[in-house]
Recover the amino acids of this structure.
């Protein structure tokens, strides 16, 4: 028979991944953080819940920064943002 997977450790790993992906791809970090937060609340895993909340907050911050940079570069042109290009 297959062994049962400990969902509290799964939510812990999702919390770590959400923090890592917040820097690489904020949308993926946000999705992983929300999934991990739901799993952490079901299992009452406090440490995993904190990691997922940190991952969600970082993802939102970097998503906002990405949107601001995109809007700025679209409005002013890419040459004003990177003058050496």
């Amino acid at each position: 028979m297959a062994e049962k997977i400990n969902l509290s450790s799964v939510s812990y790993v999702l919390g770590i991944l959400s923090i890592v992906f917040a820097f690489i791809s904020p949308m993926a970090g946000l999705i992983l953080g929300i999934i991990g937060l739901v799993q952490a609340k079901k299992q009452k895993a406090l440490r995993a819940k904190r990691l997922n909340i940190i991952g969600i907050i970082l993802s939102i911050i970097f998503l906002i920064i990405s949107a601001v940079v995109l809007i700025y570069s679209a409005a002013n042109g890419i040459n004003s943002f990177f003058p050496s290009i």
Summary: The radius of gyration is 17 Å. The first helix runs from residue 7 to 24. The mean pLDDT is 85.
